[in-house]
Amino acid sequence: MSIIKTEHLSKFYGKARGVADLSLKIEKGECFGFIGPNGAGKSTTIRMLMQLIFPTSGNFWLFEQIIKGENPALRRRIGYIPSEINYYQELTGRQLLELGAKLYEVGTENIAPYAELLELDLSKTVKSYSLGNRKKLGIIQSLLHDPELLILDEPTSGLDPLIQHRFFQLLKEKNRQGLTIFLSTHVLSEIEKFCHRVGLIRAGKLINLSSVEDLPGRAERIVEVTYSEEGDLRKPYGLSQIDPAVRYQDGRHIFHVKEHLHKALAIIAQHPIADIIIKQPTLEELFMKYYGQREEE
Predict the structure, then answer these.
(1) Beta strand 252-257 with 205-211: parallel, antiparallel or unpaired?
(2) Position 153 pLDDT exceeds 60
(3) Which of 89, 97, 123, 169 is buried most deeply by CB count within 10 Å?
(4) DSSP class of residue 240?
């Protein structure tokens, strides 16, 4: 069952482009990552999925129902964490969450456990909360009604590392129980650790859609070598045969090896080595490299 489906979805604000010709499908129980630079169209896409704005052209479906206008019944099946959290300032955290539970016609028994997990003091007013505490409030609000689809727009901004870890552990458990998750974030390590597939959007257009493992460049390895002999040894050691763009930085020779790692290591090991690090490029490194190439084209 597809939870989200878009076909040639476009949104323009006058002549300004929001999203252009976006087609994708997200299945039940999937965690989908959505990444792109600022202004790429991520928030526009999310606002359309939330029925806050509507497309200029194209169609989209939620829970296999086509959306032509506001559909409150379907929206009740979705949890949403916007990038910016704005709530009634004078209410306490507890009052606001109890109001939310009443509107969704659900119980309040999960409020206290979620608040304890996220270390949120519910007795304080919303106006006294920091950015991180407002984000915690939004997380709890989004989960209170046990949604089938959770849409997250930069959900961890303002959260400290411990709370981020607890939040993603909670999401993993919810995902194992069948929750479908659409995650838009600039923290690419979150996509790398958490998502099944990832879509890269640029200038309103989807330019890559794949599993995280199959992203362009994931087979590449970064090799950082410190030789026993000091100095820039690229020319005397003939290191450009491994990588024509090999860099020398802070005493290390840095190679990008796209294939045949064993051959590269055989050449590297022809000279005495003080230290060597071999690592897979992060999504952030791939992201910047991929977009950099597209900018140059």
Answers:
(1) unpaired
(2) yes
(3) 97
(4) G
Distance between CA atoms of residues 122 and 262, nearest Å? 57
Strands ordered across the beta sheet of 57-62: 16-27, 2-13, 57-62, 65-66
Task: Give the pairing of strands 221-227 and 273-279.
Answer: antiparallel
Are the CB atoms for 13 and 48 separated by under 8 Å?
Answer: no
Q: Which of the residue ranges 4-13, 227-236, 277-286 would you say has the lowest mean pLDDT?
A: 277-286
Q: Is it the case that residue 84 has pLDDT exceeding 80?
A: yes
Partner residues linked to 199 by β-bridges: 34, 209
pLDDT for the residue numbered 297: 44
Helices marked H in the chain: 42-49, 72-75, 93-104, 111-118, 131-143, 161-176, 188-194, 261-268, 283-296
Per-residue model confidence (pLDDT) at position 248: 97
Cα atoms in the Cβ-side hemisphere of radius 13 Å centred on 207: 18
* φ/ψ (deg, to 5) at 56: -75, -35
SS3 127: helix
100/8 Cα distance (integer angstroms): 35
Question: What would the two tokens of residue 104 be?
Answer: 């969704």
Query: Would the pTM count as exceeding 0.85?
Result: no
Alpha helix stretches (DSSP H) within 248-296: 261-268, 283-296
User: How far is it, in rounded angstroms, from Cα 254 to Cα 225?
Assistant: 6
| Distant-in-sequence, close-in-space partners of 222: CB < 8 Å, separation ≥ 6 | 254, 255, 256, 257, 278, 279, 280, 281, 285
Q: Which residues contact 158 (CB under 8 A, 6 or more apart)?
A: 130, 131, 132, 134, 135
Q: 97: how many CB neighbours lie within 10 A of its CB?
A: 24
Q: Both ends of the chain: CA-CA distance in Å?
A: 38
Q: Cα(130)–Cα(23) distance, rounded to whole angstroms? A: 37
Residues contacting residue 295 through CB under 8 Å, at least 6 positions apart = none
